[in-house]
Amino acid sequence: MPGIENTLVSSRPIRGGQVFRRFLWISGLLALLVAVELRNPLFLLWRPAATALVFALSIAALLVLRLTPLRPRAALLALWLSVLALAGMQEGIFQWRKQAVLSSTEADTRQLGAHMIVSYGDPQVVKVLVEKGLIGGVFISTQNAKGRSREAIRAEISDLQALRRSSGLPPLIVATDQEGGIVSRMSPPLSRMPSLAEVIVDAKPEEIEWLAFAYGEKQGHELASLGVNVNFAPLADLSSANMRHRFDFRSLINRRAIDTDPDRVTPAVIGYAHGLETSGVRATLKHFPGLGRVTADTHIFPAALAASESDLSASDWIPFRDGLRSTQSLLMVGHATLSAVDPTRPASRSSKVIQGIVRQRWAHDGVLVTDDLTMGATAHQGLCSAGIDAINAGIDLLLVSYDTEQYYTIFHCLLQAARQGKLDTKVLAASQRRLVRLSESS
Q: Structure pTM?
């Protein structure tokens, strides 16, 4: 039957065309979503491959659409042109901001740079930031320590400090995350030590402080021998044995926190901080306002601390408050939202939390540092505003450690805000005095 045969033959290319057109629509929409998120810190591990793939697919799709009589061609062309334009715009904006930062010669650039601490992989890249005063500190992480000797790390840090001296700048803050236990960024080559929780687990109340002191003294001596002068430890968070942290994939607070009892945590953090201080290393109490009761992981998700102020003040905040009064420690402010005080902003960018509680109620005038600004809990509200809000709230140091390229985005936004008068000059001046005091006492 010729009619039936002709119908079957002619239907095959039509069906094939429909499948291919559907494929272009679906893949185009997915590529558009990827293009939107290319600069999201959570996308860091896949960014190079995803960027190359998006550009390659876009060019291939546009070539196919030019050569193939698919309908509706105009809509598909618009979709894939949008993918290509968006991916190109994302990369273009980043490169423009980066060059604007590196070429900045304004007098306030070095003043703002003093508020930035960044991690790095390539020493040559960070040397430019160090020499120009575009940062105030570096964060030494596993990528700097893995497979390297103490001598090599010491020499690298020494070279960076020499650059500061030759440029007439204050010494760098050299920070790391050496808690002991599962968070030991510098081990090896430094000694692998148990967590502070393990050290005091069976200790009598009167033994806790001196055990923690001895622990901190040993750790401080090793850190100082490399040139590290600030340690992002200890945890002053209380663990919550009865709370299920089913969405805590990376913070793992219950495995890292010292104890559930503030009367045991407080002498532990004080003793540990004094132990570090014997070698000239500053401790950092973290992660105020406390992550023990927070069920979500701020590395990935927005998270809230729902307890009342009175409840927190009577328990969770005791190690923070007493630790700051008794030691020279810095305070790391985390990205959980303190719902009872400011339900709209993470603590790290909330003036109500920083000024209202830490600066005014506690009368604390020491140095405050954010947790990594490239965590998911802050990135979802915008990294540009995160840095500006944190500085205006009274935070002194902004940490950029996971997605280091975001430093250029955050710092460019700070420069723009300074030019437009959007930084609180009174708050900024007080912060700069604190940083000078920290530098002079190191």
A: 0.90
